[in-house]
UniProtKB/TrEMBL annotation, chains A, B, C, D:
The lineage of its organism: Bacteria, Bacillati, Actinomycetota, Actinomycetes, Pseudonocardiales. Transmembrane segments: none annotated. Its EC number is 5.5.1.4. Residues 220-324 form the Myo-inositol-1-phosphate synthase GAPDH-like domain. It is an enzyme of class 5 (isomerase). This is Myo-inositol-1-phosphate synthase. Belongs to the myo-inositol 1-phosphate synthase family. SUPFAM superfamilies: Glyceraldehyde-3-phosphate dehydrogenase-like, C-terminal domain, NAD(P)-binding Rossmann-fold domains. GO terms for biological process: inositol biosynthetic process; phospholipid biosynthetic process. It holds the Pfam family NAD_binding_5. It comes from the Bacteria. Signal peptide: none annotated. InterPro entries: Myo-inos-1-P_Synthase, Myo-inos-1-P_Synthase_GAPDH, NAD(P)-bd_dom_sf.
Length: 382, 382, 382, 382
């Protein structure tokens, strides 16, 4: 396939650093593509870009070198020491393709100015590397819920407001999405932040004939829920309550345990369960910050259900994983699938990618097996 | 639909008693059909017999009245007291349709004689109640593994051996299957015992144009496994080990914890996992008899898997349920689906019923969602 | 021993109803004293009142008959049907000894008037039944946290404020404690509400030479914690985080999940853990209302700890119990131990009863084994 | 204190390598003594040898250098890379003090000869390093159960049989114990193998006025059980079943999952539970070999118990730890406590060390808190 760019918003974060290290390691053949959905035999003939056809770049608002970030992840057990050594040089090279991201607190002019700068970075990245296309994918920290404004309704109103100096009409995630679309890039929301989910931005995507996908990568508790909930539904077992507790360390724990930030995350987690089960279930959900867990996350779910003759039974599970190791291969998968979709001329929300998201755009399908079937069928048609 | 018989082998066991009580309760409208797959909207137009179109009868080698058995299940928490009161009279009526089962220890003549008696019971039951067809379904205790014999290979050799007085060429489950087929009845194996799984018996089913299904109802640990294992497979996560422990009380615990009996059960549990994951996984599995749990069963599974960059993670679950309450509605479902299949002229192993079994006949599909899709599609074609 | 009264504040609640039913069942010899600490051989010679030397009465603000409450508990699985039948008549008799409790919303005069009425009820109960003493024990619903007031500091200031008509200087739990002390009764706080924990009330207990004990019965998650935390401490393992989630149904779930009410409960749960481990542990704790669980409560705790060479390990447990069945026998135990303490002339906070409480008065000892040793030694000295 | 030797039988195994690395790291002050019981403030004045007063040596039948073994443990996550670097040189030095162990398959002469050689190694080690005493501690692989022989009954019969060339009257663990005693060394059994537990050997210990302790280090599931079982006992809750499953990787998993070897391990695990609970509990127990877990071990226990009014409840826990990291600090603790005991002139089985063992010698006390109290009191008396 033609050379493809993968531009990461939040390029120095844990997920991005793991994805970048992993891609370098795959190219160097020091790891196998475990966890990479796109490497399954199912997708062998889907015309996806090869590992060495993907060029990396990105935005971030911090400037810790990638190599330093990867070293910390190696200490946390996410990146094996041998892999770190193998990709160390490559990380420095990718570092030269990371540009300063946008944050209202450090930006003086209008949001239109900011978006223009971000778009320019994308255009230059494509030109410098001779890329046929650049997939922009956001893995930045989850934002607090951003208030809904009337200016979000149409592209025209939005751009008018963005032109006002000092005015913050969009959260950073949406400025990035806008910049991506303006630069003609397919866009993927891997976080629960607002991003592209505003009528004005979706209007722009439509006008630009660009595909986009999201939201919120499905990597742990919600993944398991989307596999288990259909079991109860197809067996006609009546789920009465589904309680969940998430223990997170790292920066994610800090960000998400904060009630305001967690708002968007909890909402995207809850939506799926309601759809899968029919909406009438008691489903308390917590996210706790447990710094000591580091990159690990632990989720406990307790499902209470009614069976034949009204008998009460229960299922509980504990999921213990490394968030970045679960998310990173999906980031690479999404880059490959989006590149193929764009090459294929697709536009609008890409429902066949629902398999990857907690809160999929373009479909209400939350059942994991059905999502995979959709993905496989779509990929077969590329 | 025309009146249908459901003839239960092991009609006084926990599963049968719960199924019978439940059917009576459904007819009396004192319970909703929770746990009944066939009552889902998906199957509304599949032409299945209604609850009051199903007539009950069966064989058993014990003679405790159904009412007494149901009372014990009420004390164990499987049948609510109010339901028990509502069906008490009905149970006595069903009791009059239960005939003495076959057991080598109490039978003098040849197995051919025994089979003839069982077939006659079926024919009389059908005639007495004006039934269009009788579905025979085995829920008797799991048998020890029965040795493979050359006589099992063909119907001719089998019938010759069965005619020899005092010779035990078949385990009781297979004698029942033979009798069912000879009486022109569709047959369902809800247990892991040998039953219909002998070439000579499958030959007879073919000659008789009869449908059959099995084996071993999927009600707990294996059900969850068939929902979860595809998640690992489609996410390209490499399962390294999948350990399981089952704690069972009741007669089932006693029967299955015994190594020889457990042989067939453990084998049918293991086959599914190997197929779902590709066969190279360490999968120790135990069944322990814990009498104190009564009708409850508890299963703990621990899955260790490898993700991106070789990182190790784990998932564990605990399933806590009432075996009979999980199995009973499926017994009713199978009676309805088999009746429809027979009415529709189908014959041979019914692969679309794989959804209900640990070790499905006629297909290697163990993935729960795919099994449900097969069932729904097939039912839609009836 | 001389006839003893047990007066329950919240006498129609789940815990009280279970305790009353259980005492009647013990007298009728239809159950064994499982769960009753005071029935262990250790306490055989401690001179405790026998089951039939305890007379029951109490206050409540609802008037559902005890028999009706017990019937609901029987349906929830807390009281076996046969036990319910055996104690049904006895419950009606106890009902005649239940008087209307105090609640600010339904009381017109001063809190002094209210307390006087409650005291009179106690005195009449004692006289009517010829009781040597009456142990007052609170099992009423957990109150919202009551603000601290200057008038709480001394008995004098408190009584002056209580005399003001319409003034609410005390929460209901403290009015009950005051009334008990004024009537010369030993007092036990089985809840986390304010109760006797005000300087002015403790002053009164001292002046009256009365023993008292509390607070907050230790029946589930905290019980397990007090057994497990010393394991980490004596093994020099460094606990880094101890997260807990509690799922409660019934009225308790409703009351405690409410953040304000939960305040007192969460505080009393947290204090023990900090003391046991040294206070520097991350310990997020949640209480969720899951109505569908009914009388059941489920707690999940996840402990992350550091071992030799800094290696990280974990322990998690799930406790699944019936709150009332866990609390009720302790209520009877406390009545017996308090009666013996009073007969023995003890006064002030009874530290040897710490074994029963989440937040013990009179001691900082939270280690379960050490608490039991204290109890056994003290009982041996009676 | 005077210089002390710690001589490890199985000196190149995982536990020994971790203990040796840890001691070197403690001396180098690159780790804190987390997991070391003897470093608790309680034992500050017990006169134990300091970390740098302990000299290391040992026997083993394999000759992989310690440095190589430690490197593998570093890769498995048991020894942090930085610690490994800090102790690498030290490990080579200790390596020079490791001598060839005894194994029947590679030994030609009599067991008396073999024992003499082992004793000589001990004497030379002591002399070479100017040691006041040498504690011999076995951490070798668990042996198959060794048959009981009449010659084990007395020291005289035993020595007569040992003198017969080619005769194997003792398992290797007992030959080592004999050699230790003959060399005047205190002896500790950290494994469930036969070791010192033969009348003839205990007779020799008595004659030699030597202290000894064992058996089978309590590091995981049994540790938790000894903390939790007393909770049920003191709360008068009737445990009905206590089921356990252990998943082990590494060499330990391979050795113990084998039924014959596991015999001794399962027996020592079971004895404690029976004593703690009174012996009438259903307690199925499994050890599974799950190579993929590496040095990790996972244990799941399910406790079913009866409470007040016969209500059934349950507690389950999952323990996930690194076996060597749990055992190693206890090895160092035992060396220190045994040295102090020997210096203090104690002899016979050291019951105060029960805290460390699954199957303690010299006492039936299995309750963890009581064991710690015994240890603290004894250490205070040194």
């Amino acid at each position: 396939m033609a050379p493809t760019g993968l531009w990461l918003i939040g390029a120095r974060g844990s997920v991005a650093t793991t994805a970048i290290s992993g891609l370098l390691a795959l190219r160097a053949k020091v790891i196998r593509p475990v966890g990479c959905v796109s490497a399954l035999p199912t997708f062998e003939h889907a015309g996806l870009p090869d590992w060495d056809e993907i060029h990396l770049g990105g935005h971030d608002i911090v400037d810790t070198p990638l190599e330093k970030r990867a070293e910390l992840l190696a200490e946390s057990g996410v990146i094996p020491p041998a892999v770190f050594e193998a990709v160390r040089t490559g990380l420095s090279e990718v570092d030269t393709e990371i540009r300063c991201g946008y944050h209202p607190a450090t930006h003086a002019g209008s949001q239109a100015d900011a978006a223009r700068r971000l778009s320019d970075d994308l255009a230059e990245f494509a030109q410098r590397n001779g890329l046929a296309r650049v997939v922009v994918l956001s893995v930045s920290s989850t934002e607090p819920v951003f208030p809904s404004l009337p200016e979000h309704a149409t592209l025209k109103a939005l751009e008018a407001a963005m032109a006002v100096p000092g005015r913050t009409v969009l959260p950073p995630s949406s400025v990035s999405a806008y910049a991506a679309l303006r630069a003609g890039c397919p866009y993927v929301d891997f976080t629960p932040s607002t991003g592209i989910r505003l009528p004005g931005l979706r209007e722009l995507a439509g006008l630009s004939d660009l595909p986009y996908a999201g939201c919120d990568g499905k990597t742990g508790e919600t993944l398991v829920r989307s596999a288990l909930a259909p079991m109860f539904a197809t067996r006609a077992l009546a789920v009465r309550s589904w309680a969940g507790t998430n223990l997170l360390g790292g920066g994610d724990g800090l960000t998400l345990a904060d009630a305001e930030h967690a708002g968007s995350k909890l909402a995207s987690k809850g939506r799926g369960l309601a759809t899968l089960l029919g909406g009438e279930v008691t489903a308390p959900l917590h996210i706790d910050n447990v710094p000591d867990l580091g990159e690990q996350k632990v989720a406990w779910d307790h499902v209470s259900f009614e069976g034949f003759l009204g008998v009460r039974m229960s299922l509980q599970f504990t999921w213990s994983g490394y968030d970045s190791a679960l998310a990173a291969p999906l980031v690479l998968d999404l880059a490959r699938f989006m590149a193929a979709a764009h090459a294929n001329g697709e536009s609008g929300p890409l429902a066949p990618l629902a398999f990857f998201f907690k809160d999929p755009l373009g479909t209400d399908e939350h059942r994991l097996a059905e999502q995979f079937a959709m993905l496989a069928e779509w990929a077969g048609s590329l």
